[in-house]
Amino acid sequence: MRRHLVKTLGAAALAAAAMTATATPAAAAPYCADGSKVSWARVQIFADANCRGGSMIVKSDDANGDRPNFASFRNYDGRVYNVDNSRSSVAIAAGQCIRVFDGRDYTGEESNILCAGSGTAYYGFFAFDNRVSSMRVCAANRQDHCNRNGGAGSPPPPPPSQPPPPPPGPEPQPEPEPQPEPEPQPEPGPPAGEEFPAAFSNGPVDAPVWRPQVRKHDSIKCGLRSIPVGLPPQSVSRGFTSRANTLVARIKGPDFRFTNIGGGADGTETGHISGSFHYCGRGIDAFAPGVRSGTRAAGAGLRASWRLANWAAHNAARLNVAEVIFYDKIWSASKGGWRPYKHSASTSAASARNNTLQHRDHVHISIF
């Protein structure tokens, strides 16, 4: 018998335990916080339990939501990630279903089908925790499409009843001259108001790899000396380069309202590691409102800081961001994702507890 995929809480757990592997378990509404799923997602799968950690998204307008190989998962932005055997929970949009498999190409052990009714449904993977390798996505009224074979061989839905023939109409008119096809339009991004998904405030959200083509400049003496082709080296004005000052203005503006911004160049090379981005005005240290230097961000300050950190990483290409560091995590354009971070000066247990060195009190953003 196949293993159960989902566990729920309280009395619902007893009901779910009694189900067979082919039954549809009840969604555990309290399993994830309201708003964990972005509004434009058809399916959103998370690295951690309770819809936390980085996530991969199948967009609501993605007609084929199937993902046959999580080692090359196509995300909503068209980029490809390796998330094989690394997912722990899922959010499903209303009227949609999924079935996951522990083998690629819909092989191996399969889960029971998971569906959402009139609202978003949240599930934990539990028995399939960190062992999902492929996924079928289907509409709730075509659950056969979530089978291994994607519905191949299933009988088509019955045709609608035939309406009576229409009354005779006017004589047909000549067809109009063919018109040229319209120019293709770029694929839309998240809808207006979704530049800051709710998940951005809850912790690190997987961000894409950028890896721009770069050129080395001997005139750059600190930070990364190789910057994207087409970007000129910049001098310092008011502590930062022009590109950094543009981002500082955005961080201070109504989207974030971070007024405590530090890290600007002052003509010296002290206070940071050798060759730091800060010495040439390309390193920004942003403290959320209410967060004091040396004190771990918490509550609203922690959420605001993660919101900024995720936004900067997800928009690195247009902001010219090279790396983002916050709360023991680092994202870099060359590698993508969020990885564990340890400051080079954290050589002892005491220094590893230093909230400033480990960037637990501020968001650091390095600019190309």
From TrEMBL:
Keyword Hydrolase: no
InterPro entries assigned: ARB_07466-like_C (IPR058593)
Superkingdom assignment: Bacteria
Sorted UniProt keywords: Signal
Biased amino acid composition, Pro residues: 154-191
Transmembrane residue ranges: none
Residue span(s) of domain ARB-07466-like C-terminal: 271-349
UniProt keyword annotation of Signal present: yes
One Pfam family linked to the record: VldE
Signal sequence segment: 1-28
Region feature Disordered, mapped onto this chain: 146-209
Coiled coil start-end: none
Name of the protein in its database record: ARB-07466-like C-terminal domain-containing protein
Organism: uncultured Solirubrobacteraceae bacterium
Lineage, uppermost ranks: Bacteria, Bacillati, Actinomycetota, Thermoleophilia, Solirubrobacterales
